[in-house]
Structures are given as C-alpha cells and as structure tokens.
Amino acid sequence: MSIDGRWIEARDDLVTREEAPMTTFFWGRPDDRGRALVLVHGAGGSHALWGGVYRALRGRGIPAVAVDLPGHGRTPGPASATIGAAADRLAADLRELGVAAYAVAGHSLGGAVALTLASRSAPGLGALGAVCTGARLGVDPRLLAGLLQAFPDTVARIARLCFARGTAEATWRAAAEAMAVVGPEVLHRDFAACAAYGVSAEELGAIRVPTLVVVGELDVMTPPALAEELAAAIPGATLARLPSVGHLPLLEDPEGLALALAELWGRAFPG
Known about the structure:
Blueprint: E1 7-9, E2 14-17, E3 25-28, E4 35-40, H1 51-59, E5 64-67, H2 83-96, E6 101-107, H3 109-119, E7 125-131, H4 141-149, H5 151-162, H6 169-180, H7 183-196, H8 201-205, E8 211-216, H9 224-233, E9 238-242, H10 249-252, H11 254-268
Parallel strand pairs: 4-5, 4-6, 6-7, 7-8, 8-9
Antiparallel strand pairs: 1-2, 2-3, 3-5
C-alpha cells in the first residue's frame, strides 16, 4: 500500500503519480513514515541516471526516490523555464504525495533545484546534497547557440566534458545518446535555466539543514573550486571529493556517491 493511495506499483519498484492533467514520474517510494531521499537529475537527464546510486541506497535501507523533472524521462512537458519553477513544481509534487520529511540530493541543474529549495526553507526539507553544482552555473553562449544550430555535435561535446579525461569514447557517446533523447528545445531550456540561475551569499548563509557538497576531483564542468566556495558559504556544510571522477559521479562512482549520501541521510534522520 502507498502512503496516501497515489503511489502506483510497476516493474522494478517504479512508481508514478496519476493525477490529471499533469503526471510526475517517480522511481521508488517513501518509507512508512513518509520520509524519502529525493534524487534530482541534471540537464537532459532522467531518473535512470541515478540507477546505480538508487540501488546502493535502497540496499542500505534508505528510501531513495528518483524523480523525472517536467519534460524529462517519463514526465510530460513542458520543461521548466527556470530553476525556481522546477523547485516549485517538485515541492508541490512532494507535498501532494504526502511526503512528510525528506532530504534532497541534486546533480548539476538538479543541485541548483535542491539549493533553491534549501534557500527557501522548504517545508519538510531535512537535508541538502549538492552534487557537482554551484551557487551559479555559468554557460557558454556558444553552447546555447550550438544546441539549436548543431545539436548532435554540441551534445557530444557536452557529454565528453562530463566525464574524466581518458574515459572510453563508447561511454561518453552512450551518455550523449541518452541526453539527446529530450531534444534540442528541452536541453536548450535546461542550459538557459542554468545560465540565468543564481543563489546569493545571503541565501546560502541562511541554510540551516545538514548539507553535503560533492564534487568530482576531475570535474571541468563545475570545478572543485566552485564546490569549495559553495561549502564555505553554507553554515556547517561538509565537502566530499570523489577521486578520479568528472562531472558524472552518478555513473563514474555510484557506490562512492551513495556512501556519501547515506551518511547525509543518517545526519538528517538518525536511526
């Protein structure tokens, strides 16, 4: 049984919210106390990117729930035009689903969504995981133009930069194919939202929930310096560095990322 009658079972513990006219897809379910570790993907992503992390967390008894943001994966569009709009939608979905208390861990764009929720003191939020993200996410205007004018080549370039140098071409090309599924309009909207996003030092300083900032030591998309600045700006935040990892620890080191998030969950919801 679901916590509120609206979680619908499917294969491999997939669940969704069935509620016209919008349907948000979730993978996993909260525990019987209505608690969840909510995993939020980045630009062009979906719940599937969290597969290895999700399974590692569930194996530790942590109620992980991965979401597809609007216009991504199995959630219909349109994609959110701003980070704030994506945060508002996610908060509303969790509230409507009866999630009473949660930690949120977001990757890149998803990290910006998570930071926005924390900076707004979202009701029920008990911990923050910011993975390969920052208080600002600069985007080269040439990349934005390329997504509309030369989509396949630009997506391939993005995917290559997301992995540590030396990663096999087959690996980053597979990631490019997965990212390209959302199409140029959605991916352009994602990166435009990142370009316009920013959280002030005052907003970061007001965050009071346990916070973990995670960065790959070889990340060139959101370099370690950004993670260091972010962790320094949030009171009590801890910084976790994943060695030999680029911008996609979800795929490059899912066990290491899951371990770090499990420790965060334990800080927020001991026992």
